[in-house]
Amino acid sequence: AQTGVGVVAPNADLDLVLGSVHFIDDWAFDDPARTERYDEWRIEDLWDRYFTDVIAVASAGIVDVIAHADLVKKFTRAPAGRAPQLYREAAAAFAEAGVVVEINSAGLRKPCAEVYPSPGFLNELRAAGEKPVACLSRILDHYRPVLEANYADDYPHRQQGAQTIIATPRN
C-alpha cells in the first residue's frame, strides 16, 4: 500500500503528503469497471483488509493526511455492524500516527452518496482527538451540522462563513 509514496516522498521536498488506499493487492476496488471483484470477497474480510491497509499507510510515517479514509464504502457494500469498530480502530491509529484526515465531498457524487469520511467515522475521529481537515469548499454546507456539533472548538470560522478549514499536521 505505501510503496509508491515511499519511493517518491523521501526524494522530494514536499510540504504535505496525502496517502490513500485505492488497491487491494492488484484490484482497483474503487474502479466502477471492476466491481465484479467484490463477489470474490466476504464484505467483512474486504473491510478488514482495507482498514488494515489504510492504518498501515497512516502508521508508516510517510504521510501527513489520510485522504478519503473510508473509500471502501463507495459502492455501498458494507458489513452489518462492523464499520463502527473499524472506524474506532482507524481513528485511534491515525491519532497515534499524528496524521489528519481529509474531508472529501467526492462521495456525494458516488453510489454511497456520502462525504468521506462518514459522519459516524467523523465522530470516532473526534473521540480519538483527531482534527479532520476540509480540503474542498463545497462540503461545508452539507457537513456544517456535523462540524458544528463535533468540532465547535475547532471551527472558529463558522460565524464568518469561511469556505475552508485548515488543520496543520502534527508531524
Judging from the principal axes of the Cα atoms, what is the shape?
globular
Helix content: 25-40%
For the CA atoms, what is the radius of gyration?
A: 16 Å
Number of helices: 5
- H/E topology pattern: HEHEHEHEH
- Overall mean pLDDT stands at 79
Q: Going across the biggest sheet, name each strand in turn.
A: 1-2-3-4
Unreliable runs, pLDDT <50, ≥5 residues? 153-171
Quickly give the structural class: mainly alpha
Number of strands: 4
Q: Give the biggest beta sheet.
A: 4 strands, parallel
Cα separation of the termini: 20 Å
Strand content: 5-15%
Compile the SSE list and pairings.
Layout: H1 3-8, E1 18-19, H2 43-59, E2 65-66, H3 83-97, E3 100-103, H4 119-127, E4 133-134, H5 139-150
Parallel strand pairs: 1-2, 2-3, 3-4
Helix pairs in contact: 2-3, 3-4
Describe the model.
The protein is mainly alpha-helical and 171 residues long. It is built from 5 helices and 4 strands. It has helices at residues 3-8, 43-59, 83-97, 119-127, 139-150, and strands spanning 18-19, 65-66, 100-103, 133-134. The protein has a 4-stranded parallel β-sheet. It is globular and about 35 Å long. The two termini are 20 Å apart. Residues 153-171 have low confidence and may be disordered.
